[in-house]
From TrEMBL:
<dbReference type="InterPro" id="IPR037171">
    <property type="entry name" value="NagB/RpiA_transferase-like"/>
</dbReference>
<feature type="active site" description="Proton acceptor">
    <location>
        <position position="102"/>
    </location>
</feature>
<feature type="binding site">
    <location>
        <position position="120"/>
    </location>
    <ligand>
        <name>substrate</name>
    </ligand>
</feature>
<feature type="binding site">
    <location>
        <begin position="93"/>
        <end position="96"/>
    </location>
    <ligand>
        <name>substrate</name>
    </ligand>
</feature>
<comment type="subunit">
    <text>Homodimer.</text>
</comment>
<comment type="function">
    <text>Catalyzes the reversible conversion of ribose-5-phosphate to ribulose 5-phosphate.</text>
</comment>
<comment type="similarity">
    <text>Belongs to the ribose 5-phosphate isomerase family.</text>
</comment>
<dbReference type="InterPro" id="IPR020672">
    <property type="entry name" value="Ribose5P_isomerase_typA_subgr"/>
</dbReference>
<feature type="binding site">
    <location>
        <begin position="27"/>
        <end position="30"/>
    </location>
    <ligand>
        <name>substrate</name>
    </ligand>
</feature>
<dbReference type="Pfam" id="PF06026">
    <property type="entry name" value="Rib_5-P_isom_A"/>
</dbReference>
<feature type="binding site">
    <location>
        <begin position="80"/>
        <end position="83"/>
    </location>
    <ligand>
        <name>substrate</name>
    </ligand>
</feature>
<comment type="pathway">
    <text>Carbohydrate degradation; pentose phosphate pathway; D-ribose 5-phosphate from D-ribulose 5-phosphate (non-oxidative stage): step 1/1.</text>
</comment>
<keyword id="KW-0413">Isomerase</keyword>
<dbReference type="GO" id="GO:0004751">
    <property type="term" value="F:ribose-5-phosphate isomerase activity"/>
</dbReference>
<dbReference type="InterPro" id="IPR004788">
    <property type="entry name" value="Ribose5P_isomerase_type_A"/>
</dbReference>
<protein>
    <recommendedName>
        <fullName>Ribose-5-phosphate isomerase A</fullName>
        <ecNumber>5.3.1.6</ecNumber>
    </recommendedName>
</protein>
């Protein structure tokens, strides 16, 4: 993992921000560099839609207005990091437990610019444990369903998401068909969101300051 590449990626994403924009903002240490750079443009943008309490706090601290997605409608741009990225720009996300709101904003955005360091690039998704946000009472049920599918579910004990839910991290999956797995897991009652971004992958991936 390279903090320098994360900074480069966060700063490079600024070139996608247009005057007057409302920018969708993800969560994590790479996005924190993007928010810092966005603050320099704050007089040129209308504001941001935030994917987490963590990003909201940073945005507000730097004087960037935080807007409600219900009020803004569709966005032109979403900038977020990832835990893994394959050659088709499909992602695993949710290491920071913000996957559900991240997925909502990605879906609402015309362009998703993903910012990563080179350690996140993979041929096959799944070495990074796949995060799944679940309704608390469904934790065991979802865990059993994952075991049936050959995964090893580990409860991220002590973590409560911004939505009041829990996270299961699935170890041991080599994800050959991310789209099919995402669809399958989404059918399990109690699953709020799956940290696979295959149906809605990134549009642009910046690895440091280089377009992938
Ligand atoms: C948060 C995420 C993050 O984008 C992902 O965990 C990458 O984080 P970082 O930029 O700190 O490596 O999905 O839920």
């Amino acid at each position: 993992m390279s903090a320098n590449e994360k900074r480069q990626a966060g700063e490079a994403a600024i070139r996608y921000v247009e005057n007057g924009a409302i920018v969708g903002v993800g969560t994590g240490s790479t996005v924190a560099f993007f928010i810092d750079a966005l603050a320099d443009l704050k007089d040129r943008i209308e504001g941001a839609v935030s994917s987490s309490e963590q990003s909201t706090a940073q945005l507000k601290r730097l004087g960037i207005p935080v807007l409600d997605l219900n009020a803004t409608g569709p966005l032109n741009l979403y900038v977020d990091g990832a835990d893994e990225c394959d050659t088709h720009k499909r992602l695993i996300k949710g290491g920071g437990a913000a996957l559900t709101r991240e997925k909502i904003i990605a879906e609402a955005s015309a362009k998703f610019v993903c910012i990563i360091d080179s350690s996140k690039q993979v041929q096959l998704l799944g070495k990074f444990p796949l995060p799944i946000e679940v309704i608390p009472m469904a934790r065991s049920l979802v865990g059993r369903e994952i075991v049936k599918r050959g995964g090893n579910p580990v409860w991220r004990d002590g973590v409560v998401t911004d939505n009041g839910n829990w996270v299961i991290d699935v170890h041991g999956w080599q994800i050959a068909d991310p789209m099919a797995l995402e669809k399958d897991l989404n059918q399990i009652p109690g699953v709020v969101a799956v940290g696979l971004f295959a149906r809605r992958p990134a549009d642009v991936v910046l690895v440091g300051d280089r377009v992938m």
